[in-house]
Amino acid sequence: MSAAESEGPAWRVIADALRSDIADEVYPPGSPLPGEAPLAERYDVSRPTVRRAINVLVGEGLLTVAHGRGTFVRSRPERRVILINTPKTADLLAEDYDPSTQGWLRGEHAKAIELRRAGIDARDVVITSAGRAEAEALGVRTGTRIVYRYEYWRHRTLHQTIAVTSITPAHLVGLMPEPRPEEPADLYDWDPNDPENPYTSSSRNQEEPSDLPDDYDPGEEPEGSTSPEWKMYDRLTERHGPVRFVSSVTARMPVGDEATDLDVMTGTAVLEVRRTMVDDQGRPLEVTTITAPADRFEVASTPEWLAVTQHTGGDAAAALRL
């Protein structure tokens, strides 16, 4: 029976048939798919219909198109595990942290290149305003000043690249004053000349002192590099401890130049492994995010993983302990 005589759109019937053949290794990983013309003849359809079916499978990550060479079944790469819930939680972006012990080499993040093109010398950390995603992760308002740290890591043997980022509200570590609360509805009921008005500049200047220098100018935009002599995790623990860590994993498609930066093939999702430091009230203090190709990495909880793989060298197979 031809595709045109089957139920459903012809391109979907062809996509289903090719997907089944790939699963059964009629076309094994790395092998070429027949050309559009032979497939069109086999299924008694036009070449654009075949092309649409192939594009569906490319989008699913089953096929890859090499221009000038043809369409190939994507090979299944070996996956390496990222372990979460490790007993010793380290600040991966601290200056004294050495990722080479796990086989990773630090690299320049796209954010650093973007800032340098804008005339800002900020290699791996900036104080900036929280966008919607950062604000939601930290439980703060959009526009709140945050310390944003970022690096790319490339594995010396796996030759895979991951993005490592960290965000924390700048006021929690004393780099910015405490944000003003939302203005209430009765703001304009106050006399601006009333010294008891909590929204006048004089009353706002009576806030608790921060760690900012005496000559700090709040009108300046501190978009640039910061080099705190203290350690981020130590400062957060001292000020807001005791702390604990909560991990989560999500998958999404790459955005912008992310696919190129992480060397992700078309149709491949990325994993976002997020570790959040929270205080004893559950308030987020810092968020570390690992973004990695989903076809090369998987995520497991450390205790369970080690219990299952203790006799097969599971610990040695871990690419990263978060």
TrEMBL record:
Domain (HTH gntR-type) ranges: 8-76
Amino acid composition bias (Acidic residues), ranges on this chain: 184-194, 208-223
Keywords from the named record: DNA-binding, Transcription, Transcription regulation
CDD domains: WHTH_GntR
Record-linked SMART domains: HTH_GNTR (SM00345)
UniProt xrefs under InterPro entries: Bact_HTH_transcr_reg, Chorismate_lyase_/UTRA_dom_sf, Tscrpt_reg_HTH_GntR, UTRA, WH-like_DNA-bd_sf, WH_DNA-bd_sf
Entries under Pfam families matching the protein: GntR, UTRA
Matches recorded under SUPFAM superfamilies: Chorismate lyase-like (SSF64288), Winged helix' DNA-binding domain (SSF46785)
Superkingdom of the source species: Bacteria
Region annotation Disordered: where it falls in the sequence: 175-231
Name of this chain's protein: GntR family transcriptional regulator
Species the sequence originates in: Streptomyces chitinivorans
